[in-house]
Amino acid sequence: MIIRFILFFSFSLLYSLEYPSSYAHLGTPLYKSQKILQNIETFSSLDSVKNFCVDINTTRENGFKLDTSKDKSELKSYLKNLRKLRKKYEYIVYELHRELESAIEKDDYEKFCLIVNSGLDGILQRPSLQEKAFIYYAKNKTLKKSPFLEKKIERNELLLNTLKEQDDEIINSSYNSTNIKDEDIGITTKRVHNKIEVSFYNKHIYDITLKVKPYYESILHRQTPKSEIIIQANSTYLYETLEITGDNNAFNYNFIWSIGSKDAKHDDEYEYRLPYETTTKHRVSQGYNTNQTHKGRSKYSVDFAMPIGTKVLASREGTIISVKSSSDRGGYSKEFRGQGNYVRVLHSDGTIAIYYHLKKDGAVVNIGDKVKKGELIGYSGNTGYSSGPHLHMAVYKAISAVQTKTIKVKYISAEGLVKEMKTAETYQAI
Fold it and tell me: Which residues span the membrane (predicted)?
């Protein structure tokens, strides 16, 4: 009697699960989409939606049977069916993209709202379609607001503000033959007879990636120069040699640059220490690749929740290349963008670590200082575009003169080697 009760209880427990456990990583997202697709079926005449809803019921029943069966010979067939369903789902998304574009073109705002508010995963995955949808919605939202789009726009705006707040300094400069500026980065010219040697110089202690747009009048050049170059720290780069062909000659150079070499290659074997004191613990308030602000170019950033004034230690040895410590302003608003204090550390492989949102006068290092792994570099704060006291940290590199990307790194902790920084997890420094 007891045995029968246990068997019955186990059997009921398995069936009480909402979705089959076999290949759950593939099946569960599809099963979860069924309710959304059934709602879409009420306003869409797409045959693909109707067929999907029929097929998914059969597949789910087979999945539950496999969960309770000792015979696993049908697993391969079940996996094959899941993959077919996934392709059907992707085709539905494609068809709904077309319907959404059609609704925009025909100015059918009611249909537009029904589609976007469905909440179907991937409905605005295409950047070009998302942009069209945002523009169309902005023109019509006084008629009816879309909770889905309002949230989506808010997230995108938050991400944009965060990227602008945390991004490297991207410097625009220009040069012409009558205007020479004495700056840390610029152009020098040297005339020899009818030729002019044009060189870029970099007086900083770090490499830069620089993009050039030249303009010539009555000038010859033997070969087209590169549009993007790397200038090493404290060096000069001969860009090109011009030949003057007449009296009315002129040449201009517009250029833009960012910190770091686009050719830098991260040492993926390196193990970083956590940026706080040994034996102390801090919770990750936002980990890698989240739906908030750590995505796109910032997806491998990490936020550690910590009280203002917590000691911040270097996670890796390097050279201090940039420091800001003068701001006492911070908050969750655009007006605080650019107000964050930070320390940047250049590593031996050319990558850069940024420690962000430090308190006013919270940096204890200067440009040019060499720091060891675990050495004190500052104190945490809440300056800049920030929702609360925390330390934002990322390792990144330049990928062009106008763009950077964060790098996935490993951290040593008391819990072991952390390869994926996860939101809400707590890690102890060792």
Answer: none
